[in-house]
Design goal:
10 strands; 11 helices; four-stranded antiparallel beta sheet; binds adenosine-5'-diphosphate; alpha/beta; 287 residues; six-stranded mixed beta sheet; Rossmann fold; globular
């Protein structure tokens, strides 16, 4: 079992005064019993010959939120981008090691990055709606490269509604689907991007600091959405905000200088971390 390779403390050596509030529900799910959605083994991600992610072996459970935290530049985004083959889109970048999504190696011979990205959607730091497209066509943009669109043309309206419902945006936009996406607020645009990622019905959704550019109210809406999404899709969220990780995630991974220091339940990581470096980080001694 890959899970046995994770750094899960059996006996916490110390109990840390929590600096963040952890949701009561966060540790109640028996996540170790759920089949992993993503598994990595000795995953290393390089830019030219410099490793930004080093020998990471970890699992991401299904239908749960996994947060990746750590100081700026520690490799959080790079690790996330290995999960849907985005890392290799940077010239000179390459990946070594093993990554599987639902048991299938995504770097195997003949595996199409486009197919991988359909199953593993991604949302970036800044909202990236297509500026010349309507709200409706933005939701459908990811399906354009997907043959299912042809098969289900009569269901397109249903796909748009379902994705916008799941992204918590339907009520706000249902009467203006043909308006430009640029007429939406920043927070709405980010939820539109989440709807776009959900429209291909991915099994995993990767969120790279999705609230970094949002005001507090929009941030709260996106966090509530992330918390809800875990019922239907696996979520991995990169955040530099420990409070956010504590609010929305079931499990948290702490990354330092490209290495996975610790991955365990969010409650445990923030109250009884196994590693002194985790403790130093969550208590604000560096980072
Ligand atoms: P984080 O998300 O934790 O802030 P990143 O994954 O963005 O960290 O970056 C990890 C390391 O990789 C950093 O040292 C950063 O400078 C480097 N890096 C990120 N993007 C590139 C790139 N396009 N080319 C070269 N190095 C990069």
């Amino acid at each position: 079992m890959l899970q046995s390779t994770e750094v899960i403390p059996s006996k916490p050596s110390r109990v840390v005064t929590p600096t963040v509030q952890v949701r009561a529900l966060a540790s109640t799910l028996p996540l170790d019993d759920i089949k992993p959605c993503i598994e990595t083994r000795e995953l290393t991600a390089l830019f030219d010959n410099t490793a930004a992610v080093k020998n990471v072996t970890m699992t991401v459970p299904q239908r749960a939120v996994t947060a990746i935290i750590g100081p700026s530049g520690c490799g959080k985004s790079t690790l996330l981008r290995c999960f849907n083959r985005m890392h290799e889109t940077v010239p000179g970048a390459r990946v070594e090691g093993f990554v599987a999504v639902l048991g299938t190696s995504i770097y195997g011979d003949g595996t199409s990055p486009i197919a991988v990205r359909r199953h593993v959607g991604m949302v970036f730091q800044r909202p990236t709606p297509f500026p010349t497209m309507s709200i409706r066509n933005n939701v459908l943009a990811g399906l354009r490269v997907d043959s299912r669109l042809r098969e289900s043309r009569e269901n397109v309206d249903g796909i748009v509604e379902e994705a916008l419902q799941r992204a918590g945006l339907w009520a706000e936009v249902k009467d203006r689907l043909n308006e430009s996406a640029m007429a939406l607020s920043g927070g709405q645009q980010q939820r539109l991007c989440i709807a776009r990622a959900l429209a291909t019905r991915p099994r995993v959704i990767l969120l790279d600091e999705p609230t970094a550019s949002l005001d507090p109210l929009s941030t709260q809406k996106v966090e509530e959405l992330v918390y809800e999404l875990r019922n239907t899709v696996s979520v991995v969220i990169v955040t530099h905000n420990m409070q956010q990780a504590a609010r929305v995630s079931d499990r948290t991974a702490f990354l330092l200088a490209g290495e996975l220091v610790e991955l365990t339940s969010t409650r445990e990581l923030f109250t009884a971390p196994a590693d002194e470096r985790t403790e130093a980080y969550i208590t604000g001694r560096f980072g």
